[in-house]
Design goal:
This protein is an alpha/beta fold. It contains 27 helices and 18 strands.
């Protein structure tokens, strides 16, 4: 809470002062309330002397808070004024009593005692404004209910003898009615704020609420004593000391933001309890002829509570609808991934006697439908398939669309192979969409509970079943079989793949499972040789996995596995860190080498990718131009909008962007002008056939096109001097291949990036 270094020390001192004054007040109250006020050891110049000291000291302590901490300074200045006015009022009251003159109903002391009530109300309102930001309409009705109930109860306590304005002068009415009326407003405000905070108050607001309640009790008792003709108010006035201590203590408490919270049992019962209390006030008021204002406020509280209950029911219905939408796929009306996983967990937890199975369906060549006929037809196809798939299932089977063209089925019936055949038949039947018959096929992976590895929890079992079904589905797609059932003792490559996925996850995420270390990643660097000797040196970082048992694992044996298992972001983050560390070492040694790093499709969906890359460059003291990110043309055109935004952000920051494997796709030329690229890398499939006149013409055309668009051209797969000669003649800016050396581990010196290219011409 402290905003200046000295505030912590002052807060500790304030607690000690409050403790000492509180102890003195307890001793003094004990003497006064037992009728021995004149003999109190703290009876100084009058019975009110200690109260005056406490209130004026409280004003100083709260004012000190305003000086040291600027937050909500106006509100706390008003509270300091509340304490000061009350203290000054008792000083004046002391002097008036000591004069021995008769005192009117409205004395000079009342001019000091009356302003603190509206000032305290204004301060409470100012303090509550930033604390209850973001509350909804339902919580506002809670405030109305609680506030009117508090005012009604206060009116009932005061009684008809106090709330009576007939036969009194205007000044007498101010004393008789002003104090209780303003106190009713204060009590209502505190009740409203408690409701706005969801009935959860921090220490500061507990103390402020106690201050208002003590104010209410003191003013109510004084009003009743005066209304009944009594004059001995000394005992009640001692409560002003409690008010002073509470104000000082509340000023030095830490505060927290009270934001809107979800509806729970407490917030639903609170208006009902308020309504019941208001009914009691109505009954008591009718039986004892209490002031009409109490009955009016209680009746309004009941009506507001009924409206609040209606809002609560509506909110519950809205919450139920939001929950339904959260677990439902909008296109097909089936469960989405969240709803399916929840349904599987509930089924596994509730029915342990039956064997469950998950069937994962992935449509074949669905991308061709989207590309050839448009996404609208693709959506119509998915929507038409949903009822077909549902028709092949039993009533208690669970069907969901996980996303894209993936569907999933949970079943507890034993004949999963027959069910898979039924689903295949449903998908393969002619399906008219948009006036044409679209041929469809599907690959299905089956995972039965007994075949999959056993997890410790229901959630782990669910994810394991889904993962095994996904593994089987990929095998069905690779082997072009309609369906494949997961077999933990099946092909070696499947078992090795699963083991390798577990090891890769443990290595990248830092988790261990009680087994030996799983090796480490290492980067090798291959030169991008410039045809212009003045060009800056460039290398490409290529990842290797050094496994303790299998030796060096090539990237093509684990990159796809990382993509399928969701580990690509972890892998990319590790590769970028290693590459930037090596680049920083080279730059510190005086070699300003630029490093290229490959990105995968899923990396472009990572929301923090750009920030992490730029932060990594900054922390190592590297300029953005020291890094180039490479993406394949298939990745670049796969999700053009998302990829373009990410790449554009990197490009604006100064990071290079290269289109890798150019020439392997069929539509890259139409997308080049829309991608924020700085470099084009010709695929080895083009550079390997330069002895063919047609292939050489295509390579030259690509180089000319890239130069026209302002892009640098790197030719990959250069292995012979003849290739090098042809590419230099065609205008390639850089060459990359084994002709200039294999990728080498990082070291104190980077790989050589200049060669006598002229000699090969």
């Amino acid at each position: 809470m402290a905003e200046r270094p000295g505030a912590v020390v002052v807060a500790r001192a304030v607690r000690w002062v409050c403790a000492l004054l509180g102890t003195a007040l307890v001793v003094h109250l004990g003497w006064v309330w037992t009728g021995h006020g004149e003999r109190s050891p703290l009876h100084l110049w009058s019975s009110w002397a200690l109260i005056e000291i406490i209130l004026l000291t409280s004003a100083v302590l709260v004012g000190l808070r305003c000086v040291l901490m600027p937050s909500q300074r106006v509100a706390w200045a008003l509270i300091a004024a509340v304490a000061a006015f009350n203290g000054a009022g008792y000083v004046v009251w002391d002097r008036l009593l000591s004069s021995g003159d008769p005192l009117p109903s409205f004395s000079l002391a009342d001019a000091f005692w009356l302003p603190p009530l509206p000032l305290l109300g204004l301060a409470v309102w100012l303090l509550s404004r930033p604390l209850v930001g973001g509350v909804g309409a339902v919580r506002v009705w809670d405030a109305v209910v609680a506030g009117t109930l508090g005012a009604a109860v206060m009116a009932l306590v005061l009684g008809r003898s106090v709330l009576n304005w007939t036969g009194v002068s205007p000044l007498d009415a101010i004393v008789t009615l002003g104090y209780p009326a303003l106190t009713m407003v204060l009590v209502g405000m505190i009740g409203s704020i408690a409701a706005l905070a969801g009935w959860r108050l921090d220490n500061r607001w507990r103390l402020l609420s106690a201050t208002v309640l003590v104010f209410a009790v003191a003013n109510g008792l004084v009003s009743r004593v005066l209304a009944d003709g009594g004059a001995d108010v000394e005992r009640v006035d001692q409560l002003a000391g409690v008010i002073g201590l509470l104000l000082a203590a509340s000023a030095w408490q830490r505060s927290r933001r009270m934001a809107d919270r979800p509806i729970d049992l407490r917030t639903l019962l609170a208006p009902l309890l308020c309504a019941g209390s208001a009914v009691i006030v109505l009954v008591v008021g009718a039986l004892t002829e209490q002031p009409p204002v109490a009955e009016i406020l209680a009746a309004f509280c009941v009506l507001a509570a009924l409206a609040r209950v209606g809002f609560g029911v509506r909110a519950l219905l809205d919450a139920g609808e939001q929950h339904r939408l959260a677990i439902t796929d909008e296109l097909t009306g089936l469960y989405n991934r969240r709803g399916f996983l929840r349904g599987v967990e509930e089924a596994l937890a509730a029915d342990t006697r039956r064997t469950h199975a998950i069937l994962l369906l992935d449509l074949d060549r669905f991308k061709e439908v989207n590309d050839g006929l448009g996404h609208q037809v693709g959506d119509q196809l998915l929507a038409a398939l949903a009822p077909r798939l549902a028709g092949a299932l039993e009533s208690d089977d669970l069907l969901a669309r996980l996303g894209g063209d993936e569907f999933a089925v949970l079943t507890a019936h034993g004949a999963v192979e027959q069910l898979a055949e039924s689903l295949l038949a449903a998908v393969r039947s002619p399906l008219p969409v948009g006036g044409i018959v679209v041929p469809t096929d599907v690959s299905i992976g089956i995972a039965v509970e007994g075949d999959a590895p056993v997890g410790r929890t229901v959630g782990e079992r669910t994810l394991e079943l889904l993962r095994c079904a996904d593994t089987a589905m990929y095998r069905a797609k690779t082997e072009r079989r309609g369906w494949v059932r997961y077999d933990s003792l099946g092909p070696d490559r499947q078992r090795d793949s699963l083991e390798r996925a577990s090891e890769l996850r443990a290595m990248l995420t830092g988790t261990t499972s009680g087994v030996a270390p799983h090796g480490a990643l290492e980067l090798h660097y291959q030169a991008l040789v410039a045809t212009d000797v003045t060009a800056p040196p460039r290398v490409e970082a290529l990842v290797r996995w050094h496994h303790p048992l299998h030796g060096t694992i090539a990237p093509d044996q684990f990159l796809g596995l990382a993509e399928r298992t969701g580990l690509t972001p972890f892998l990319t983050r590790r590769v970028i860190d290693l590459a930037l560390n090596q680049a920083a070492r080279w730059w510190r040694a005086g070699s300003t080498v630029q490093v290229s790093v490959n990105l995968a499709a899923s990396d472009l969906l990572h929301p923090a990718l750009v920030e992490e890359i730029l932060d990594g460059l900054s922390r190592r003291g590297l300029p953005p131009s020291a890094l180039t990110v490479e993406i394949t043309e298939q990745v670049a055109i796969g999700d053009l909008d998302t990829g373009r935004d990410v790449l554009a952000a990197l490009r604006r920051a100064g990071v290079g962007v290269a289109i890798d494997d150019f020439g392997t796709g069929y539509s890259a030329l139409s997308y080049l002008q829309r991608l924020p690229a700085t470099e084009l890398k010709l695929d080895r499939s083009l550079t390997a056939k330069l002895d063919d006149p047609a292939a050489a013409a295509i390579a030259r055309a690509c180089i000319d096109l890239a130069h026209t668009l302002g892009l640098e051209v790197v030719a990959e797969g250069v292995e012979t001097q003849e290739q090098s000669q042809a590419l230099v003649a065609a205008g390639a800016d850089r060459l990359q291949g084994w002709l200039f050396g294999k990728p080498q581990p990082g070291g104190p010196r980077p790989p050589a990036t200049t060669f006598p290219l002229v000699s090969v011409l």
